[in-house]
């Protein structure tokens, strides 16, 4: 059994992939060009009419999003203590200060109450991470941002295709609520390339133009060798754009397949007292980048992981170490115990296999193995 089976997921699209690659090779337009713009337009349309600006990877997307805010060295950006390292890295690498904030014990996303207490006169932005495939509490975070004049950045690397219900009842795509959203096309993400890729998302056309500039050496469209800003060379590869255009029309059905598997896991595991299924964030749909459960403590988590492995079921810990205990972030001066929820989650989370072409008998089998362990 595999956590992810990209060869099987890609197999039915092989002829289309071949045609895409041929199209790019024959056009000979290997950097930017029409293919990248078409992908950007199609992704924007898929996300309800937002502007999508492709770039080289999801980490660059976060960095470019921050660069578009014109911050000063030493400005503070709130970041969850429980996330992939890229979220904090993008802040730190720009000479800004990542201010870690604990996550909620029920949904594992940035805690708006803890965020409120971390705001200082230097705070400029909040980075919310839509962890495992569902949105952070965007209404609470947006309210906090409005109160304090902060920008909201959504790290949507794990929740592309999820939706958020606005206070007025309307539904919008995750990643298009804040000033800038970002996503990643790392191969294992819900919409993965066959290499690196990423994008910024925004509803603001002038910010989209600015992000495009920043990702292309600060150069405006049609103005070669005039550099308006200090930017990056961070472009989505044209071949990757062509492959992603082939995959994008399938993202909806792949997401539905993930949601179906998650519902089966919920049914199989829901009654077991030896494990816990995290709460679903009201207002958000969940695209199940991961199906993650928690155990009572690390001994229990490690025992289940070992039992699964003995029965041929792979599982992963996303993430084993909170940011404040990572060697590179010791300079922030935090101690063990400071972000208790993040630390507890690192010791107790476990992600089970979930991917769009996972055979139903495997889903059933995983459920049965976990049940046997939990009742044993
Ligand atoms: C994958 C991921 C990123 C980084 O994306 P890359 O494309 O690998 O640079 C950032 N944040 C989160 C939450 C991620 O899961």
TrEMBL record:
The active site is at 189 (proton acceptor). GO terms for molecular function: pyridoxal phosphate binding; transaminase activity. GO terms for biological process: polysaccharide biosynthetic process. InterPro entries: DegT/StrS_aminotransferase (IPR000653), PyrdxlP-dep_Trfase (IPR015424), PyrdxlP-dep_Trfase_major (IPR015421), PyrdxlP-dep_Trfase_small (IPR015422). Keywords: Pyridoxal phosphate. It comes from the Bacteria. Pfam families: DegT_DnrJ_EryC1. CDD domains: AHBA_syn. SUPFAM superfamilies: PLP-dependent transferases (SSF53383). The modification N6-(pyridoxal phosphate)lysine is found at residue 189. Belongs to the DegT/DnrJ/EryC1 family. This is Transcriptional regulator. It comes from Solirubrum puertoriconensis.
């Amino acid at each position: 059994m595999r956590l992810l089976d990209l060869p099987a997921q890609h197999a039915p699209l092989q002829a289309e992939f071949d045609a895409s690659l041929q199209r790019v090779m024959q056009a000979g337009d290997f950097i930017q060009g029409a293919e990248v713009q078409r992908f950007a337009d199609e992704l924007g349309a898929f996300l309800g009419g937002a502007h999508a600006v492709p770039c080289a990877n999801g980490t660059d997307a976060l960095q470019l999003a921050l660069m578009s805010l014109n911050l000063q060295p030493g400005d503070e950006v709130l970041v969850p203590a429980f996330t992939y390292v890229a979220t904090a890295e993008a802040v730190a690498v720009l000479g800004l200060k990542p201010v870690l904030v604990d996550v909620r014990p029920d949904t594992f996303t940035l805690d708006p109450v803890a965020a409120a207490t971390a705001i200082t006169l230097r705070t400029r932005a909040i980075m919310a991470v839509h962890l495992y495939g569902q949105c952070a509490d965007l209404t609470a975070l947006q309210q906090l941002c409005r109160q304090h004049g902060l920008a909201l950045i959504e790290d949507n690397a794990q929740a592309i295709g999820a939706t958020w219900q606005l206070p007025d009842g309307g539904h919008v795509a995750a990643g298009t609520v804040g000033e800038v959203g970002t996503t990643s096309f790392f191969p294992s993400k819900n919409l993965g390339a066959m290499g690196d890729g990423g994008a910024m998302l925004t509803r603001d056309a002038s910010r989209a133009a600015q992000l495009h500039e920043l990702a292309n050496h600060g150069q405006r469209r049609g103005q070669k060798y005039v550099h308006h800003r200090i930017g990056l060379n961070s472009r989505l590869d044209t071949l990757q754009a062509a492959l992603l255009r082939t995959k994008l029309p399938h993202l909806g059905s792949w997401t539905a397949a993930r949601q179906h598997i998650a519902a089966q896991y919920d049914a199989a595991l829901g009654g077991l007292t030896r494990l816990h299924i995290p709460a679903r964030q009201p207002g958000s749909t969940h695209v199940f980048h991961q199906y993650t459960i928690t155990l009572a403590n690390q001994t229990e988590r490690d025992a289940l992981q070992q039992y699964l492995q003995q029965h041929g079921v792979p599982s992963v810990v996303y993430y084993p170490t909170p940011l404040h205990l990572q060697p590179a972030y010791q300079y922030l001066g935090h101690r063990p115990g400071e972000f208790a929820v993040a630390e507890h989650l690192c010791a107790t989370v476990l992600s089970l296999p979930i991917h769009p072409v996972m055979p139903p008998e495997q889903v059933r089998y995983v459920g049965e193995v976990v049940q046997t362990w939990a009742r044993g």
